[in-house]
Amino acid sequence: MNNPFETGHIRNYILLYVSVVVIMILFFVAATLFRNVEVIDKKSFNTQIKQNPHAKVAQQNVVEVNSTRFKLMPKGY
Questions:
Q1: Are the C-beta atoms of residues 23 and 15 closer than 8 Å to each other?
Q2: Using CA atoms, how far apart are residues 19 and 13, in angstroms rounded to an integer?
Q3: Is the dihedral angle over the CA atoms 17, 18, 19, 22 positive or is it negative?
Q4: CA 42 – CA 16 distance, rounded (Å)
Q5: Of all helices (H) and strands (E), which one includes residue 69?
Q6: Alpha-carbon span 74 to 77, nearest angstrom
């Protein structure tokens, strides 16, 4: 088997490596040039709290129903 450093084949390996790097750079440039960036509108949430007088009554009913069906442990492990 011939030594690639002595026969001049190292030049072919270097050219192959450089060509792969150049192709990668070209694909990167093409991907950045032709990328369509979509503008997304900023979402805003309603921060006003609505006061519902019936909500407290409904929550108390749920607690009463759940308290009869389940018994919680006095200490969590």
A1: no
A2: 10
A3: positive
A4: 48
A5: helix 53-69
A6: 10
pTM of the model: 0.42
The pLDDT of residue 6 is: 74
What residues of the chain score a pLDDT lower than 50? Answer: none
Predicted local distance difference test score (pLDDT) of residue 59:
54
Distance (Å, whole) CA 12 – CA 19: 10
Distances (CA, A) of 45 to 30, 41, 42, 48: 38, 13, 10, 9
Residues 6+ apart with CB under 8 A from 10: 4
40-to-36, 37, 43 alpha-carbon distances in Å: 12, 9, 9
